[in-house]
């Protein structure tokens, strides 16, 4: 996609062990401004999170891939490998 | 192995020791309880009658060095579902039974004196049955205090019932003490605490003083296999990292993000207050108050997914509430207060109640107008006043979700076979809906945990909102789980087991080295299939038909936000789940 230059606001939730990559976040949540063409993969690179540490990504609340793009106001949840029950 | 079975007749107060029959030697845990229930309990009997039996059996690896091998199975005909029931618990009793060489304890008949409160004790010399009427009406915490004063604390493990079990109500659990002697681990599902209450047995004391840990058939091979299994579990990101750090409640955020976190009696799939009750917040709260964020419910567990939850004053409230407990009494009731949920957890443990069932009871009662959604203090009052004192309202609530829904005129009752659903809405995760519908246990997530493949990317991926593949997935998991529940290992061993063959190999090595008979993966899966077959056959003889294998109607009609999905796997597909097993 051709870069548009427009910024969009995204609420980012880093869960469990990924919280260590954004210590300023409240309850793991942080607001970030991204270019329209930025992907969740870009977010991981920006936060220096290894891709292998991010097991799955949800966007409002559909499970997506790391190369999906965001829309304005989206919420992005990124999780490490998790289990329980 | 040289193991024995004890039959305890509570009418004539006799305890009979028998060698384990040859046909049952490769059975343990759920495999053994379900075999005994199937063979000895008339399927159409009343669950609280003399014909029902309460059967307690540790797993095949009980007493061994293997990590997490001390889970305990309790079986009988369920007062909640009317079908066969196996409910398992952690804590210290499974290992104690293994040390004592006990394969099963059967409580039989009914007591002559309905006021009797028997304490059944086993040690290296056998069993005794004593009447302790002074224990009547005590909560599980006070009961354990009294038992320690009588029987000592050093080498004893207790199974107890609270006042709800004594009242023989269908949401009653059986508590098992943890390493600190607290009654925090429960065989919660299916109301088996009411069956124990009907037998007049308030407590079972297991005393391992002077008893050596069983070495097993081949101690060196046993040690090698135990170490191999422990390393495989430590190396897996779930059993080795997120469960130890955040406990089971690490799931709250991810199931909420998946739109499958049942909120306000299954009316939507996301909870706006999830951050306040998540595993991350629970851990932060525990750490800030000086609690213990990592605690094992039994010795030798390498996962240690539990924790100790203190109040703001630093004093103990309860063990860290688990994912299901936090959800049931949190999001499902519109409650976003972790301290209140910890108090509810403490009350459920003390009264002897299943936390899943009770969370659904209160959510249904809220929908029916008994109290508003979000009223945590109202829930605490109902538990501590109405249920503790056995008032008519308290007895209705402690009879379970279906009964409560009927009394309060609610038609949205999230039950299968009378048992309330756990913390995953089957409209957003359809594989677990297949398990809820078709498990012989009623709605039970552990019976075939498709969340692993539907959401967590463990053991493969099957999209949660699609109908394709869910029936086969649930069937295979139900077979594997019936086998795992027979070993006494914690279900969380399944996470690394699903991601590669090494854990299953280590498990077969363990079983062979400990038990002294050859175990292959084929033997293991055959055990799962035969156990399920026995359970399904019992339910058929009890009068269950395929109509019982259905989710409540509102889940096929009422779309669940945010996906606006319904449960749409056809009935004829559900009927295929067990067609090769029945």
Can you describe what's shown?
- The complex is a heterodimer of chains A (85) and B (582).
- Chain A is mainly β.
- Chain A has one domain: Beta-grasp domain (Ubiquitin-like (UB roll)).
- In chain A, a hairpin with a 2-residue loop joins strand 3 and strand 4.
- Chain A has a five-stranded mixed β-sheet with strand order 2-1-5-3-4, with no helix packed on it.
- Chain A has one helix and five strands.
- The mean pLDDT of chain A is 79.
- The radius of gyration of chain A is 12 Å and the shape is globular.
- Chain B has three domains: 204 residues, Aldehyde Ferredoxin Oxidoreductase,  A, domain 1 (4-Layer Sandwich); 181 residues, Orthogonal Bundle (Aldehyde Ferredoxin Oxidoreductase Protein, subunit A, domain 2); 136 residues, Aldehyde Ferredoxin Oxidoreductase Protein, subunit A, domain 3.
- The mean pLDDT of chain B is 97.
- The relative contact order of chain B is 0.13.
- By secondary structure, chain B is an alpha+beta fold.
- In chain B, a hairpin with a 6-residue loop joins strand 4 and strand 5.
- Chain B contains 24 helices and 17 strands.
- In chain B, the strands form four sheets. Chain B has a six-stranded mixed β-sheet. In chain B, strands 8-7-12-9-10-11 form a six-stranded mixed β-sheet, with helices on both faces.
